[in-house]
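Record ATP-dependent rRNA helicase RRP3, 465 aa.
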Amino acid sequence: MSNDSDSSQAQNDNKAPSKEDKEASFASLGIIEPLCKACEQVKYIKPTDIQVEAIPWALQGRDIIGLAQTGSGKTAAFALPILQALWEAPQGLFACVLAPTRELAFQISETFNALGSTIGVRCAVIVGGMDMMAQSIALSKKPHIIIATPGRLQDHLENTKGFGLRTLKYLVMDEADKLLDMDFGPMIDKILKVIPKERRTYLFSATMTTKVAKLQRASLNNPVKVEVSSKYSTVSTLLQYYLFFPFKHKDCYLIYLCNELAGNSIIIFTRTCNDTQRLALMLRNLGFTAIPLHGQLSQSKRLGSLNKFKAGSRNILVATDVASRGLDIPLVDVVINFDIPANSKDYIHRVGRTARAGRAGKSITLVTQYDVELFQRIEQVIGKQMEVFPIESKDDVLLLQERVSEAQRIAILEMKEENLRNKKGKHKRVKTINIYTNGSIYEALKTIDHILYTLQEKFANDRFY
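=>
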C-alpha cells in the first residue's frame, strides 16, 4: 500500500499503480528499453511487490521510504530509477548508496553493474579494509555511482583532496535500521551536511524503528512511504523448524543436521567470531566443505569466503550476523541458527538468506535450556509456532559424540596454534579467549548444564520436553 509518510501532506495528482497492476512488466512501470533488456539478462522476469510500488513514485521524482521484508528485491527498486535518471542526464558522482556492511556494498555494486551494463555505468565501492590511495584514485575518475560504508566515505570527504559530493543528485540509505543500530548515525549526519539539499533521497529498510523515523524526518523531503510488509514477517515459502536439546550436545546436533542435509547449500549463523572459526574448523575436520565469514577476517578473506560459497566450491558458510543483512546468495537451501539472536529482527534477517525471490527454503533453530525465552519471543514476533525438525532417534545423534569430540579437540588445537603464530607476527592481534582450552572448566560447565537441564525439564513448558 502506498501513502505519504506525513498524513497532513497531500498526495500528488499522479497515482502509483493499483494492486491490479502487479503483474505489470518493467516496461509498463516506465523503465526504458535498455534497462528492460538488462533486467532480462539478469533474469528479472517480472517486478516484485516493492518494485511495483516504489519505481513509479521514484520516476516521478519523489523521495521514498521503502519497507519490505528481506529478499524482496529492494536493491533493484532503487537502482533502476537511478540508472534511468543517469541515462537522461549523465554526470560523474551522480548517486551515493550507503550500506551497513562491506559485503552488502559489494553486492549492491554488482547489481548496479549488471543492470547498468547496457548504458555503461561506472561504480566505485568505498569501504574499510581496502587501500585508501587506490580508492582516492577511483574517486578522482568521478564514477557515476558510489557505494560506501559511512565511516570510509566520511574519511574521504575529510581527507581526500578534491573529492566532494556537491553535485550529488541521489542519496540512498539501504538497510537503514542496521546503519543506525551500528552507530553510524553521527557519520551520516556529517555526510548529510556536505551534500546538496536539492536531491532525491531513498531510505530502504526491512523494519521501521524510531531511529529510522528520526533519520527520515532529517533527510527526506515530503516522502512517499511504500510498504509491502506492515510487520516483522518471514516469507510464506520458508519452512521454519527447531530442535530442543541440552547445551552439552549442541555441536553434536549441528553435525547430525549437516549429515542429514548433505548436498544442500547451508548457512550456519553464530553469535561470536570465535565460534564461527571453531565450527568451521570442526566441520572441515569431519569432512565438510565449510568456510568462515566474520568481522575479524581481513576484507580480502571475507570476500574470498563469500565468493567461494556463492560459486558452490564450498557448500557450508559459517557466519556471524555480518552475513545476515541484504546479501543475495543464490540458492541457499537451509539456514541453521546455531545461536539464537538476542534481537528478533536479526532472526528475520538471518532466515531471509533462504527462500528468496519466491523460492522455497528451510530454517532450523537450535534451542537449548538457555534459549527458551529468546525462542518464544521470536515465535511471538513472527506470529507462528515452529515445528520440531523430524529426527529418527536421539540415539542416532549421540552416536556421533565420539567423532565430534575428537574434531572439537583438533579445532581447538588449530586455533591455539593460529593464535601463537599471530603473537609471533609483526602485527599484534587481540588474543582469542577460548574457554574450551581448559578441560576442567569445560567438564564443570557440562555438569552444570546437566543439572540446569534436569531442573528445567521438570518445570518448563511441556511443549519443549
